[in-house]
Design goal:
384 residues, mainly alpha, Helicase, Ruva Protein, domain 3, 3-stranded antiparallel β-sheet
């Protein structure tokens, strides 16, 4: 959601432009998710006093946690700074952060993939477009048909895109993460691996997310020690980072609170609101088929902007990209999207501004295509 959220950690599940990164992390944590499905922990079930942090029963972690951050003087000073900036009770913040633990596996998962790890769209697609997700998506759509229709009417975001996001992120709430959110955020805020090529930027990002999380917990009377999510601190069915929860989550079921763990209506409305905020264009396709004129092809120029829509239809054609049918009437900018297939030739599509909007949830063209294709498969199954 990820996560506006230029860093790759909102919405959502964690964001990355690198499919190899996603593949490597998925293999690292797949056994964890299979063995330990996340327990739904909605806001309504986690009431505490704002003046005291609960010493709630330990939340089960995938592996044993490391030292508590109460032992670190620099972390306690950071807690004081957060309390002052956010006008929070200092002791409350100290207790919350002090009872969080360093998680060595989180520090491992956040590292870039090994050099030379190949990208493969077909493998990636098979991981997310499968019978489990399609069948769960059909049930989710059937159970929430009216809410999805209302969200589409109010925001212009199609139901299949919303369904695709929630399915890719958590299989409609089946896998919302097993890490205590505060542990994950504290680990990445105070002990982000120095060997990471963007360590300073990422550490600053997670410090802000930790601050947002504590402020959100205090304001909504939620126990900050109780919520669980991804290894990057993303939460709920749509895997929003705390900053995305604050900016984009909405009370879509009208019960005067926002619950992204247990309220499908709030989840649907929040995902739709997220895309509306990132300029979703109602009625615009996400991508078009594309071929190439080898006599005119300037692949370097076409690939230079990456996933950012830059080319008009005319300039696209001038550089050797061949469009047909409705694509020739497209009025907005386009991007050439490359999906590598290991040793096989890559696949290509012409991505629109709506394709780019999906990548604001997760900065990966592979992710965006998985969302699009899962949503379409679920829609097709609904009509069978």
């Amino acid at each position: 959601m990820q996560p506006a959220h230029p860093p790759r950690y909102t919405g959502t599940r964690i964001q990355t432009t690198d499919l190899a990164h996603v593949t490597y992390k998925f293999l690292s944590i797949a056994s964890i998710f299979i063995a330990l499905c996340a327990l739904s922990t909605g806001a309504s079930a986690l009431k505490i006093s704002k003046k005291k942090v609960s010493t709630a029963q330990a939340v089960r972690q995938p592996t044993a946690p490391g030292p508590a951050y109460a032992e670190r003087e620099d972390v306690m000073q950071a807690a004081d700074d957060i309390a002052a900036r956010r006008n929070l009770d200092t002791e409350w913040v100290r207790q919350a952060i002090g009872q969080s633990n360093y998680l060595p596996q989180v520090a491992r998962f956040i590292q870039p993939p090994p050099a030379g790890t190949a990208k493969n769209w077909r493998v990636y697609r098979g991981r997310f477009i499968d019978a489990t997700r399609i069948n769960a998506g059909v049930r989710f759509w059937q159970d929430n048909r009216d809410t999805l229709a209302r969200a589409e009417q109010e925001t212009g975001v199609p139901a299949d895109i919303i369904v695709g996001i929630i399915g890719v992120e958590t299989i409609y709430g089946q896998q919302m993460g097993t890490f205590r959110v505060i542990d994950a955020l504290a680990t990445l805020a105070f002990d982000f691996p120095a060997s990471h090529p963007r360590a300073l930027e990422r550490s600053a990002f997670f410090k802000n997310e930790l601050e947002q999380f504590l402020s959100l917990s205090h304001r909504t009377n939620i126990d900050p020690l109780a919520l669980r999510g991804s290894y990057a601190g993303a939460m709920g069915m749509p895997q929003f980072m705390p900053s995305s929860w604050v900016k984009y989550a909405v009370d879509f079921d009208g019960d005067s609170r926002i619950d992204l763990f247990n309220s499908p209506a709030d989840v649907i409305g929040s995902v739709a609101n997220y895309f509306k905020a990132f300029n979703w264009q109602p009625g615009m396709p996400t991508q078009y088929p594309v071929a190439f004129d080898t006599q005119k092809l300037d692949m370097d120029a076409l690939m230079a902007p990456d996933i950012l829509p830059t080319f008009s239809v005319a300039s696209f054609a001038a550089k050797g990209a061949v469009l047909e049918g409705a694509a020739l009437e497209h009025k907005g900018p386009l991007a050439l999207i490359e999906l590598q297939n290991g040793d096989a030739p890559p696949s290509y599509v012409a991505g629109t501004e709506n394709f780019y909007a999906i990548t604001r949830y997760n900065w990966s063209s592979y992710y965006a295509m998985a969302v699009i294709e899962l949503g379409r498969e679920v829609a097709s199954a609904m009509n069978r």
